């Protein structure tokens, strides 16, 4: 009889985390690719994250996803970092590097840009992009947007100073990069893409911005997702935008990038997105 080994252990740490789709997503990736993994969601006390991480890896865990409120704390724990984690100052994917050091990367931007440019057929290179918000969600994706060489990125936030700090951190990427308040958005012509990275949709609200930022050809992307279109998505459609999307593809895409970093195998996000969409209805 051939001895069998236990599947490799992975988990997502957060607080709260019971709502997480990650165990289902990674179970589907494992089934799709033939990888043997055990992936669980673990709710961690807000003051217990470092100890929980150390215990997990000491017990043979292979990799962690990290969600709110621990992404910045995870970054601070890491002894080595990927380029995207360094860009954002936050890590959502942890593993041990070949020297046994805790390594952190951020896959959120890869998830967003991959969804827009690969799954949805959009183009960010040479585009004029408006990004709404300047909090952690935007911090995690802005560097990846800039890597696509847009012609212009405008970061608009309720408090202009916060947007300006984020822009100042990203200076030197080669793209035109501007900060402004929500009431100062330059709208000589509609933008090619508008990305909503604010938390307004979570509360059923819509960010107040000029109607002229969108037109029929504008791609509108809300990083939030749900069973129904978000208020931002509805607002864009009411103003004539025909390409309007939520962030479910980003969620699955960032998970696929984590899976690749851990296993060296790149799963196909599309069937998992379809599965989750059915479950949301």
Report on the structure:
- This protein has 281 residues and is an alpha/beta fold.
- It has ten helices and twelve strands.
- The chain has helices at residues 22-33, 49-58, 71-77, 83-88, 108-119, 136-147, 160-169, 231-238, 248-263, 269-280; strands spanning 8-14, 37-43, 63-66, 80-81, 93-96, 102-105, 128-132, 152-157, 176-181, 193-196, 219-222, 243-245.
- The protein has a six-stranded mixed β-sheet, sandwiched between helices.
- α5 (108-119) packs across α6 (136-147) and α9 crosses α10 (269-280).
- The longest helix has 16 residues, at 248-263.
- The chain starts with 7 loop residues before the first strand and ends with a helix.
- The model has no long low-confidence stretch (mean pLDDT 94).
Order of helices and strands: EHEHEHEHEEHEHEHEEEHEHH
**Terminal CA distance:** 46 Å
- Structural class designation: alpha/beta
Strand order of the largest sheet: 2-1-3-5-6-4
Q: Averaged pLDDT, please?
A: 94
Q: What overall geometry do the principal axes of the alpha carbons give? A: globular
Extract low-pLDDT stretches. none
Q: Give the C-alpha Rg.
A: 19 Å
Helix and strand topology:
Elements: E1 8-14, H1 22-33, E2 37-43, H2 49-58, E3 63-66, H3 71-77, E4 80-81, H4 83-88, E5 93-96, E6 102-105, H5 108-119, E7 128-132, H6 136-147, E8 152-157, H7 160-169, E9 176-181, E10 193-196, E11 219-222, H8 231-238, E12 243-245, H9 248-263, H10 269-280
Parallel strand pairs: 1-2, 1-3, 4-6, 7-8, 7-10, 8-9, 10-11, 11-12
Antiparallel strand pairs: 3-5, 5-6
Helix pairs in contact: 1-9, 5-6, 5-9, 9-10
């Amino acid at each position: 009889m051939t001895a069998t080994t236990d599947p490799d252990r992975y988990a997502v740490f957060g607080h709260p985390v019971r709502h997480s789709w990650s165990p289902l997503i990674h179970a589907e990736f494992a089934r799709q690719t033939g990888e043997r993994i055990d992936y669980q969601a673990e709710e961690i006390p807000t003051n217990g994250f470092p100890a929980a991480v150390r215990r997990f890896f000491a017990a043979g865990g292979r990799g962690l996803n990290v969600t709110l409120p621990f992404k910045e704390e995870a970054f601070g724990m890491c002894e080595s970092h990927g380029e995207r984690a360094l860009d954002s100052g936050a890590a959502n994917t942890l593993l041990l590097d070949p020297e046994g050091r805790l390594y952190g990367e951020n896959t959120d931007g890869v998830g967003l840009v991959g969804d827009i440019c690969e799954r949805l057929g959009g183009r960010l290179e040479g585009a004029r992009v408006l990004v709404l918000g300047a909090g952690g969600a935007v911090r995690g994706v802005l560097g990846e947007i800039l890597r696509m060489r847009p012609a212009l990125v405008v970061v608009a936030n309720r408090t202009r100073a916060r947007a300006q700090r984020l822009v100042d951190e990203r200076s030197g990427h080669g793209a035109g990069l501007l900060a402004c308040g929500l009431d100062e958005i330059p709208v000589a012509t509609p933008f090619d893409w508008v990305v909503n990275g604010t938390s307004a949709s979570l509360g059923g609200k819509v960010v107040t911005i000029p109607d002229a930022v969108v037109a029929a050809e504008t791609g509108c992307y809300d990083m939030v997702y749900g069973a129904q279109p978000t208020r931002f998505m509805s607002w864009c459609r009411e103003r004539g935008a025909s390409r309007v999307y939520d962030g479910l593809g980003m969620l699955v895409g960032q998970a696929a990038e984590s899976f690749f970093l851990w296993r060296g195998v790149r799963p196909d996000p599309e069937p998992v997105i379809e599965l989750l969409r059915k479950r949301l209805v």
